[in-house]
From TrEMBL:
Species name: Luteibacter rhizovicinus
Keyword annotations from UniProtKB, A to Z: Acyltransferase, Membrane, Transferase, Transmembrane, Transmembrane helix
Name this protein carries in UniProt: Putative acyltransferase
Superkingdom as given in the UniProt entry: Bacteria
Start and end residues of each Heparan-alpha-glucosaminide N-acetyltransferase catalytic domain: 7-225
Length: 357
């Protein structure tokens, strides 16, 4: 059996491309003028933008398999690995909370938000790490089935999937109050796309990545193609009864994204690891959390300084004077933003500076 024990450039590259895509869609120059594929689906459906965060959580699972698998085989103490993983997960969660507090303090119209992207990453990393350390693969698959089917039953039992009245929104309102991403002015109910209940199927996404990482380690790359196609087909069929929704992270959405992520992992592995093509995105990938967190902080400081209003005014005025689509200028700003961060992570990589929480 061919077992991969080293860090794979393909996974760093795919992670990096995912982070670059996060920055691109999160940082448009004009919030009101964005091309449709670069926006999230309103409630149901799946745009290319909706794939980005699930891809990242899937890669969290792949990376967990590649990181812990060799150490466990070499006899590393399980308790020590678990402590290391949980401490890192806690640091990721605290970083996410700190960024939210910074936004609340510096931006006058910002409401304090407790859930967030980094918080969900930290929780999923913690859960996936514990499964990787203490459970066998058959337990991983049982947990995936339990999480997806159990969450489906929970959604069905709540009676509605519509905004504000579904059980996910009601839970967010009960647990976090108004410290969530969205508040319905009519009812006062809240909803957060990274809320509490949605973390359950998100964990299933990371566990599917854990299974994919195990196949990579064993050289069973054909499993990625077969499982990816099967997952996507099941998701499409399931969506007739349970529509895709990133806001709810419906099980059909989780399987759809995981299926496409498996195919992406196989493709990057084929191109980068096996055929030695340039690992585009690797520099973002080796400093993923630093790049994402740094970009989020920058997007707090720019509006807080008043610079955002001047940027938007310039982009709007220029698009009007040239009689061009303002979405083009909004996209150009986002590309420049990503390019600036590429220079930053390129310089960090050149100096071998890698920020690991």
């Amino acid at each position: 059996m061919n077992t991969v024990n080293t860090r794979l450039s393909s996974i760093d590259a795919l992670r990096g491309c995912t982070v670059a895509a996060m920055l691109l869609v999160n940082d448009p120059g004009l919030e009101a003028h964005v091309y449709a594929p670069l926006e999230h689906a309103t409630w149901y459906g799946c745009t290319p933008t909706d794939l980005i965060f699930p891809f990242f959580l899937f890669i969290v699972g792949v990376s967990t398999a590649l990181a812990f698998g060799p150490r466990l085989e070499q006899g590393a103490p399980q308790a020590s690995l678990a402590r290391t993983a949980l401490k890192r997960a806690l640091r990721i969660v605290l970083l996410g909370l700190a960024i939210n507090v910074l936004a609340w303090l510096l931006m006058p119209d910002e409401r304090l938000r407790i859930p967030g992207v980094l918080q969900r990453i930290g929780l999923c990393f913690a859960g996936t790490s514990l499964f990787a350390i203490y459970a066998r693969p058959r337990i991983w698959w049982a947990a995936i089935a339990t999480l997806l089917l159990g969450y489906w039953a929970l959604l069905l039992a709540s009676g509605s999937l519509e905004p504000w009245v579904n059980i996910v929104s009601r839970t967010d309102s009960a647990v976090f109050g108004h410290t969530v991403y969205q508040i319905d002015a009519a009812t006062g109910r809240g909803h957060d796309p990274e809320g509490l209940l949605g973390t359950l199927p998100s964990l299933a996404t990371s566990l599917l990545g854990l299974c994919a990482g195990q196949w990579l380690r064993k050289g069973q790359t054909r499993h990625l193609v077969v499982a990816g196609i099967v997952s996507a087909l099941i998701a499409i069929a399931w969506s007739h009864w349970l529509p895709f929704s990133k806001n709810l992270w419906t099980p059909s959405f989780a399987l759809w994204c995981a299926g496409l992520a498996m195919l992406a992992v196989w493709l990057f592995h084929f191109l980068v690891d096996q055929h030695r093509l340039l690992p585009l995105g690797r520099r973002f990938g080796v400093n993923a959390v630093a790049a994402y967190a740094g970009a989020e902080i920058m997007q707090i400081l720019i509006p807080a300084s008043g610079l955002q209003n001047r940027i938007e005014s310039f982009l709007s005025t220029t698009s009007t004077s040239l009689q061009l689509d303002p979405r083009l200028f909004s996209l150009a700003y986002a590309i420049v933003f990503v390019a600036i961060w590429w220079v930053i992570v390129w310089a960090m990589d050149r100096r071998r500076i890698y920020i690991k929480l």
